[in-house]
């Protein structure tokens, strides 16, 4: 069986100790971390409107796109629009952008899919990537901009050290902070990663299901928040996207889920984009029987099997 889409390319890897050595200090009042927009311009409209509404109330909002903002936007027009609009804000690499900026032999989609993901899903993702790469090859200016983005970021916000990762603390496409990893139990690994990075909060995406974890490592409260996808449905019978919001003020609208640590509120905020317009855009590019339609359309329409209550994990992982 081909390992395309299964392997974790060596250039995706980094060490946990290296991630928070020089944290930036965030000066805005609110941070949106937007993972997995997947080329959804309607979700981007809504996220920018959410930020504008907060700014109208006097709060400065930073938008940080946490990779995989490209995926379904496989036309020249949409590829340009998504990247030009996202890159007006702040952005990090996902495996999708990495493979668009410099395609690597044998990586396929660069997703590093684990064994529980079916091989036909992996094959379809590899073909979606190949189609998107053919578009990206006609936009060398955008490829150059994507190549310059960071793979991880570390920020001081509200007195806390916030580590922002696309995958996990060892790889751009790691699945160590996936919902499945938390469900199986990953407390020892989490404790080791929090010790090695010194982070209070880890924010991630890539694995496409949201979660909130809270625990204590070495006497300090720690949190993990995976926003799932900003551009696709995440929860049961719910087609809204989700983004992570950090602030020392209350969320502007009701969050789907959230926790408070110290002065900082961590929230999963719903992205109520125009579903009809989004589905029309998706269907025009990915008609019935296409790779993206087979892999994603049911989720785009109906969300997942995950209930809001099932988002939460907690543990006192060490004394
Ligand atoms: Fe990803």
How is this structure best described in words?
Helix content is 31%, strand content 23%. It is α/β, with parallel strands linked by helices. The chain has one domain (20-288): Purple Acid Phosphatase, chain A, domain 2 (4-Layer Sandwich), CATH 3.60.21. Strands 1-5-6-7-9-8-13 form a 7-stranded mixed β-sheet. A 6-stranded mixed β-sheet has the order 4-3-2-10-12-11, covered by helices on one side. The chain is globular. The model has no long low-confidence stretch (mean pLDDT 93).
Q: Supply Rg.
A: 18 Å
The CATH class, by name, is Alpha Beta
Largest sheet: 7 strands, mixed
Helix content: 25-40%
End-to-end C-alpha gap? 44 Å
Q: Can you name the CATH architecture?
A: 4-Layer Sandwich
Estimated share of beta-strand residues: 15-25%
Our count of helices gives 9
Any idea how many domains?
1
Features:
six-stranded mixed sheet, 13 strands, binds fe (ii) ion, about 325 residues, about 25% strand, Purple Acid Phosphatase, chain A, domain 2, alpha/beta
Secondary structure layout:
Layout: E1 24-25, E2 30-34, H1 41-56, E3 61-66, H2 76-86, E4 90-92, H3 95-101, H4 119-136, H5 140-147, E5 152-157, E6 160-165, H6 179-184, H7 187-197, E7 201-204, E8 210-217, E9 220-227, E10 241-247, E11 257-261, E12 264-271, H8 275-285, H9 291-302, E13 312-315
Parallel strand pairs: 1-5, 2-3, 3-4, 6-7, 7-9, 8-13
Antiparallel strand pairs: 2-10, 5-6, 8-9, 10-12, 11-12
Helix pairs in contact: 3-4, 3-5, 4-9
Fe (ii) ion (FE2) is lined by residues 67-68, 94-96, 166, 173, 206.
